[in-house]
Amino acid sequence: MFFHPMDFLILIAFAVSVWAQFRVKGNFNKWSQVGTRAHLTGAEVARRILDRNGLYDVRIEVVRGTLSDHYDPRSRVVRLSERVYYGNSIASVSVAAHEVGHAIQHQEAYGALVLRHRMFPVVNLTSGAAPFLLIGGFLFQNLSLIGLGILFFSAVVAFQLITLPVEFNASSRAKTLMLAEGMIYNDEEHGVNKVLNAAALTYVAAALISLLELLKYVMIFFQGQREE
């Protein structure tokens, strides 16, 4: 009952996700050892890009942790980990510029980001309820519960899929802005791509796992309907 042919694909996607996480850390550590010729720290790059785009009111704060960098749209704050904030490596400036890319998306009301923000309260609810509905549906062989669980889980998958263009666009903006402002040189672009592409792969893997899980549940649901 609990094994399904789709489980094999999900396991492969999970393996890709684990590999992607290792790749992110590996690329970040590697390119953290390579300084930029502009000798700018992540904080300096973030501040310059923000100011060039008129985002003088967006603050930059340092937070503890590794790869804990993020943009908080509610507080309008770019939070950078210590290695990124103080570091002047290719990895540091790449991550800093990527997070600033989200701040610029927020300013411009970038479509995918706006939709993602609007979906967040709903997804916050459905992501917690979906597992219980699905488990309950399978345990009691109740198709109605399974169907409701699928509906709730679909919102989670949609949220993850919408996250992809948001992340890819932020990375694209980061590279373009740094090159245009002379914060990195053309021969340093390779390292920037390595750092940003590795991070993007983690989002792709997570979305793929969720999508395959959703397809599995849908197939089980329709199979159950045929058997009734």
UniProtKB/TrEMBL annotation:
Record keywords, A-Z: Membrane, Transmembrane, Transmembrane helix
Species for this entry: Bacillus canaveralius
Keyword Iron on entry: no
Matches recorded under PANTHER family: MEMBRANE PROTEASE YUGP-RELATED
One of the Pfam families matching this protein, by short name: Zn_peptidase_2
Protein name: Peptidase
Transmembrane annotation, as ranges: 119-140, 145-166, 200-222
